[in-house]
Structures are given as C-alpha cells and as structure tokens.
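Kindly inspect this chain:
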Amino acid sequence: MTQGLKGWNTDAEAIEEFLDNDEGPEQGWLGPCGHVRGNGIDPATGDLKMGRAG
C-alpha cells in the first residue's frame, strides 16, 4: 500500500485505523508525497514520483 501525507484528499490519520484492523502482512510507503500515483514517472527525469523501482 502507499499513503501520501500531503495529498489534498488523503487522511493520513486513517492509516492507523487501517493497520489496527489489517490481519495480513504489512508493507508500505509513507512519506511526504504529493497527490501522485504510486507508479507515476516524472517525464522530465524518468524517475518515479514516489518510492523506488522494485
């Protein structure tokens, strides 16, 4: 899962409720990402807008 902390429509506090109720393995990206998709690529640099490849 991914969770941005600066997106205009994300509620970063809700992740606590999600993690408390999730019974499976948990991995994710949390960070000061703007409102982007997890696989978004910056056309100017070719870099991922969030996270890292793989």
User: Anything to note?
Assistant: The beta strands are 2-4, 29-31. The longest strand covers residues 2-4. The chain has a mean pLDDT of 77.
